[in-house]
C-alpha cells in the first residue's frame, strides 16, 4: 500500500470519528431537561417562646380590706388542695370582734322590728277591753246623772227641791259626758296608730338594717374566700404573720391550661383565631396540640428570655393565648410558668 493510500484511509477514519462525536454531542444537548421554573413559596408559620398558664390565670389573694396591721389567725387550706367556689380559706385576728358587732346589729334590728309591729298593731287586746269597759261605766254614770238632773229641775218650781241641788246634778251629768267622750277618743287612739309614729318606727328600722349590713360587710373583710373553684398553688403567709405586699396565697383553676406566647409584632398578619399549633416542652418527647384562642390588643417588650445570643432583647411582641388539648392540659397541669416553644401553623 502506497503512502498516499494510507494517508487517505487515515483521513477517512478521522472524518467518521469526528462526525460520530458531533452527532453524540448534539443529541445529548437536545435530550438535556430544561431547568424547572421557580415555584412560589408557600405560607410560613409563626414560631415563638411561651409560658404555661392556667386558663383562669393565677390569682393572688390578699386581705379583702387591703393593707392592714391585722395578723393572720387561721389558715384553713394547704398547698395543692382543691377548694370550691366561696370556700373559707383564711381568717384574720379581728374576725371575732367584728362577729360580735354583727350580733349586736342583729339585735338592734330585731328590737326596731318589734317596735314597729307594736305601733302598727296599736294597743294590746287587754288594754282595748279595759278602755271599752271604762267607756261603758262612764256612759252608765252619765245616764244616771242625767236623770237626776232632770228630776231636780222638775222639783224646783214646786218648791220641793233646791236650785243648788239641780245645778250640781246638771254639772255632774256634763262632767260624766265629757269623760265618756275622752275615753272614746282614747279608745280610737288605741285601735289606730298615728302615721307619724309609724314613719318614725320605719325609719329607725331602716337605720338598724343599714348598720347590720355595714357590720356584716366589715366582718367579711376579715375572711378570705375562694373566688372560684380551683387549686391552692402557693401560700405566702402563715398564722401569726402579717400579710405583706406579695399577698396571702395563689389560686388557679387547673382543669384548663393555656400557653401564652410572645409573638413578634411583625408576625401578627399571619395569625388568626382558631389556627392550629404545636407546643414543644423541654424534657418531653412528644408535642402537644393547641389552638389560638386570643390575640392581645397591645404591643409590649418581650418578656420571655431567649437563649439566642443574636436575638433582639428589646423586641416588641404581642401576647397570644393558645388553648391546650386535654392531653396537654393533663401533662402540664403542675408546670405553670414553665417556658415552652410554640409553632403556629399558617
UniProtKB/TrEMBL annotation:
GO annotations of cellular component type: cell envelope
Q: Is-annotated flag, keyword DNA damage?
A: no
- Does the record carry Glycosyltransferase as a key word? no
Extract the InterPro entries matched here.
ABC_heterocyst_DevB, UPF0194_transport
Sorted alphabetically, the keyword list is: Coiled coil
Q: What is its main location?
A: other
Q: Which domain of life is it from?
A: Bacteria
Q: Where in the cell is it found?
A: Cell envelope
* Coiled-coil regions listed: 166-218
- Alphabetical list of NCBIfam families matching this protein: heterocyst_DevB
PANTHER family in UniProt: EFFLUX SYSTEM COMPONENT YKNX-RELATED, RND EFFLUX PUMP MEMBRANE FUSION PROTEIN BARREL-SANDWICH DOMAIN-CONTAINING PROTEIN
The name this protein carries in UniProt is HlyD family secretion protein
Which organism's genome codes for this protein? Neoroseomonas alkaliterrae
Amino acid at each position: 500500500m502506497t503512502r498516499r493510500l494510507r494517508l487517505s484511509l487515515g483521513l477517512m477514519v478521522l472524518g467518521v470519528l469526528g462526525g460520530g462525536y458531533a452527532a453524540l454531542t448534539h443529541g445529548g444537548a437536545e435530550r438535556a431537561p430544561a431547568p424547572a421554573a421557580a415555584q412560589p413559596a408557600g405560607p410560613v408559620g409563626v414560631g415563638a417562646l411561651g409560658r404555661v398558664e392556667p386558663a383562669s390565670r393565677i390569682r393572688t389573694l390578699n386581705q379583702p380590706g387591703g393593707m392592714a396591721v391585722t395578723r393572720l389567725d387561721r389558715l384553713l387550706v394547704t398547698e395543692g388542695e382543691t377548694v370550691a367556689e366561696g370556700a373559707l380559706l383564711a381568717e384574720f385576728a379581728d374576725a371575732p370582734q367584728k362577729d360580735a358587732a354583727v350580733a349586736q346589729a342583729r339585735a338592734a334590728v330585731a328590737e326596731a322590728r318589734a317596735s314597729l309591729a307594736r305601733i302598727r298593731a296599736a294597743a294590746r287586746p287587754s288594754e282595748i277591753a279595759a278602755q271599752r269597759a271604762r267607756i261603758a261605766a262612764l256612759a252608765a254614770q252619765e245616764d244616771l246623772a242625767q236623770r237626776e238632773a232632770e228630776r231636780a229641775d222638775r222639783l224646783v218650781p214646786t218648791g220641793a227641791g233646791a236650785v243648788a241641788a239641780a245645778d250640781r246634778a246638771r254639772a255632774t251629768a256634763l262632767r260624766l259626758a265629757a269623760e265618756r267622750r275622752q275615753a272614746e277618743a282614747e279608745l280610737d287612739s288605741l285601735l289606730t296608730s298615728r302615721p307619724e309614729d309609724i314613719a318614725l318606727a320605719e325609719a329607725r328600722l331602716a337605720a338598724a338594717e343599714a348598720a347590720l349590713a355595714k357590720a356584716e360587710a366589715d366582718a367579711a373583710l376579715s375572711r378570705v374566700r375562694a373566688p372560684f373553684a380551683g387549686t391552692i398553688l402557693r401560700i405566702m403567709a402563715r398564722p401569726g404573720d402579717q400579710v405583706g405586699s406579695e399577698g396571702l396565697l395563689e389560686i388557679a383553676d387547673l382543669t384548663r391550661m393555656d400557653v401564652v406566647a410572645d409573638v413578634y409584632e411583625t408576625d401578627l398578619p399571619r395569625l388568626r383565631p382558631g389556627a392550629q399549633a404545636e407546643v414543644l416542652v423541654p424534657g418531653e418527647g412528644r408535642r402537644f396540640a393547641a389552638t389560638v384562642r386570643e390575640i392581645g390588643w397591645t404591643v409590649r417588650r418581650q418578656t420571655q428570655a431567649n437563649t439566642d445570643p443574636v436575638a433582639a432583647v428589646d423586641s416588641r411582641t404581642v401576647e397570644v393565648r393558645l388553648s391546650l388539648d386535654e392531653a396537654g392540659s393533663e401533662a402540664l397541669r403542675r408546670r405553670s410558668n414553665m417556658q415552652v416553644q410554640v409553632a403556629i401553623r399558617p
